[in-house]
Amino acid sequence: MFGVITGKVKLSTNQALLYIALAAFLWSTSGLFIKIIDLNPLAIAGLRSAIAAAVMYSLMRGRIDFHLSRPQIIGAIAYALTMLLFVSSTKMTTAANAILLQYTAPVYAALFGAWLLKERATKFDWIIIGIVLGGMLLFFMDRLTIFGLWGNIMAIGSGATMALFIMCMRMQKSGSTFETIVLGNILTAVICLPFCFQQAPTLPEWGALFYMGTLQLGISFLIFSTAIKYVPALDAILVQTLDPILNPVWVYLVIGEEPGRWALLGGFIVVSAVTFRNIHASNVKKAGAIRQLK
Prior knowledge:
Layout: H1 2-6, H2 13-28, H3 30-36, H4 41-59, H5 70-92, H6 95-102, H7 105-116, H8 123-138, H9 146-170, H10 178-192, H11 203-227, H12 233-240, H13 242-255, H14 261-293
C-alpha cells in the first residue's frame, strides 16, 4: 500500500481500478461523518484538512515543490472554497443534495474551459448543460427550510469551485499538481482556525476527524493520483460515480436521512448527464488520438 501511495509501485489495470474504487469508496463516506460530528462545519473542514495536509506532506516529503505559480495559488484557493462549501452544505441540507449538486462540476468545467483554457464548448456540451440545469432545479422543488435552501445553494457553489480547481490542475500539465492539494488543505485549515476553538471535539469525534483527514481525504487522493495513470479514462469515470451514489446511501443506512423524491429524480438526471458527457468526451479524445496516429 505504501508503494502505491508514493507512486513507487507499478499497477496492472485491474489493480488500479480497485484502488480507484477504494478512493471513491473513501470519498463517499464524507457525508456520513460530517453529519455525525457535532461541530461547526468550518471546524470540521479545518481540522480534517489540517490532518490531511500533515499526512500528505509526511508521506510525500522530499517530493513536494511549492512553485506558487498562478494556477497553483488559484487552484489551492478553489480547493479550499470547495471544502468549506461542501462541508457547510452537507450540514445544512441532505447529504444527497450536497454531493449530487457538487457533482455538476464537470459542466462548469466545460464553461470555465472556454475562459481559462480557450477550449470551445461544443453544441453537445450546451445540451448537457441544459439537461443538468433542469436536473438541478428539481432539487428546489422539495419542501426546503431556509437552512436547506442555502445548503443547496452552497452545494451548487462547491460544484463551481471544484470546476475551477480542476481547470487549474489542468493548467499545470508540465509540473506536479499534488502540491496544489496540499496547499489547499493548508489554506483551509488556516481559514477555519478560529472556528476550531469554539468547541472541543469528543474522543469519538476526534476519531472520526482522524479517519477523515488520513483516509477519506489524505490517503485517498494519493491512491487516486497514482492509480489514475494506469487505467483508461472511461473506466476511471465510471468507477468514480461510486462517490455520489454511495454517499447518501451510507447516511440513510446509519442515521436514516432520506432525500426528497424530486432530489432523487434530479440526482439521477445530473449523474446520468454528467457521466454520459464524460464518456462522450473520453471517446472523442480517444478517437482524436487514433486519427493522429494514422
